[in-house]
Amino acid sequence: ASGFIAGADVREFERITDPVRATELAQLGQQVCARLAGLPFPSVAVIHGFCLGGGLELALACTYRLAREDSATRLGLPEVRLGIHPGFAGSVRLPPLVGDLAALDMMLTGRTVSAREARRLGLVDEIVPERHLLHAAETFLKSGKPRRKAPWYRQVPGWKPLRTLVVRLFAPRVRRKAPPDHYPAPWRVLDLWRERATEEQEAQSLGELLVSRSSRNLVHVFLLGEELKRRGKSQAHGVEHVHVIGAGVMGADIAIWAALKGFRVSLQDQKPEILARAMKKAHGFFKSKLKEPRAVQEAMDRFMPDLEGHGLKRADLVIEAIVEQVEPKRELFRLVEQKVRPQTLLATNTSSIPLEEIGAALKDPSRLVGLHFFNPVAQMQLVEIVRGAQSSEESLARARAFTGAIERLPLDVKSSPGFLVNRILMPYLIEAVKLVEEGVGITTIDQAATEFGMPMGPIELADSVGLDICLSVAEELSEPLHMEVPDKLRELVGQGHLGRKTGQGFYRYNARGRRESPPPDKTAADIPITERLVLRLLNEAMACLRAGVVADADAVDAGMVYGTGFAPFLGGPMSYIDSLGVTGISHSLHRLSQEYGPRFKPDAGWSQPELLQRHRLSSNPP
Q1: Which residue stretches of 178-232 are H helix?
Q2: 231-244 pLDDT, tens per residue?
Q3: Computed from CA positions of residues 206, 209, 211, 217, in that sequence, does the dihedral angle turn out positive or negative?
Q4: Catalytic residue list contains 372
Q5: Active-site position among 85, 237, 241, 372
Q6: Of 119, 219, 328, 568, which sits with the fewest C-beta atoms within 10 Å of its C-beta?
Q7: Rg (CA), the chain
Q8: Distance from C-alpha of 156 to C-alpha of 214, rounded to nearest angstrom
Q9: Cis previous bond, 376, omega within 30
Q10: For residue range 435-449, what is the model confidence (pLDDT) as tens digits?
Q11: What stretches of 71-114 show up as alpha helix (H) in DSSP?
Q12: How far apart are CA 574 and CA 545, in angstroms?
């Protein structure tokens, strides 16, 4: 029911450690596809739902491909996201079918395409409704039509004199997304295409990549994500109407995303101009995502501005997304509880405040959970499901199920200051600001982080989140985590320089929100920038694990990769610790604590190696 073929069982990849064995398995797959392609009569693949990876490579071996015409049908070669590339002759068969540039784009990005786009590309011969699929298949088999080939002009980039030039044109774009030292797979795709590699060369390359550190860690990250998806689908949520209070950036984005995913949503705010801005933003977002005018209108019909809060009476789920302060949140929930139905689930989007403090005014705190989304909501997959001391199992299960229904990944965390992601991230950001105070250039700091593998440097990240929000969270965590708030952060916020949203933070931004390049800086070469940034992060990750903020090491990895983009090729902080060794990191922290102060003091968890045991997200949430 889920589709044609969704690809390989990725869990098998973890059991393959020999590149020769991996190559043999790829060759076996090629032989099966070759037998299909070599049949003395025509064959047709009738595709519905998922047709991915090896599934699409099998379909490519058929004479014809037909796809069901609906939004659920998706085709693609996503292997690059697992640190490998097609291995069943996909890199050989795809370019002649769709053209060289389209084939490279599909293999390098791993993106999936709809049935309609597949038809436009020439990936499928025709798209038809479900009821006509088998009849259309029979018609094609009897037609005697030759196999489809891309028109000549799409094959021009593959001419031998042009191939090296095409690779040069692709290289900068690939390098921005996938540096070759961290992600070798897309570079192998370019090499195979440029050399017009044979199936044997494709299989050998795949065998080498499948056992590489990068692929191992990307598979680890993928399986963590799949486990979180499974949790989000395990129970019913009973939510049809969502009421969001607070139409600022986060509240509006949560409401817009829920409406996009089919829920009726009412968005409440005290100021009509803020609601109007949210409505305008919603229309633009739906237009960009849904394309079809009718679909856009249907989404707008589900999305209602609600100045007076009338939606509270009908809401199955209320999400609070107001200012990050305890008293306003507490008072709001006291009023909300009086207006909603007994079965309504209450959720806060707080990023750092323990639920016990927020729920103190509730008569029934068991219905309160945390639904902590990350900014930007449309891009960040993780949602922290925060368990308060009095949160009921039923409320938590409904929160997980709702998160899965809006296609986000639910991660169970214990209610504690900063929860998981912000608690680990804040010492890393603060260390970056301390480096600025010491005179280290902001571009040097950010470059050190991106070269390590972070998607964005800590200084630019702070500007993007908003320095006022960073300061608020830092102050919230400063006492419980014994963390010093840098004066530079207070100074910039005091001056109204809040980052990208005000046009200036640590960096300056133009009217379009694009970062302007600062003057070149002269930073002393002997400052261990990367070591200081990364070890603050790893030390706090170990502290979270020791304190039971999450159930196990895998949960830390999932939270930091899907919540912050922490270098996926390293597998997450705890996988990175595994690769380096606990003893070496602990000694480095001791050395830095002697040089830079007690903030680098190794956490007690470093002396408890049993914490690092892997359970693939324990079934016992914190």
Answers
A1: 185-194, 199-210, 213-232
A2: 998 788 999 999 99
A3: negative
A4: yes
A5: 372
A6: 328
A7: 26
A8: 33
A9: yes
A10: 999 999 999 999 999
A11: 90-98, 100-109
A12: 10
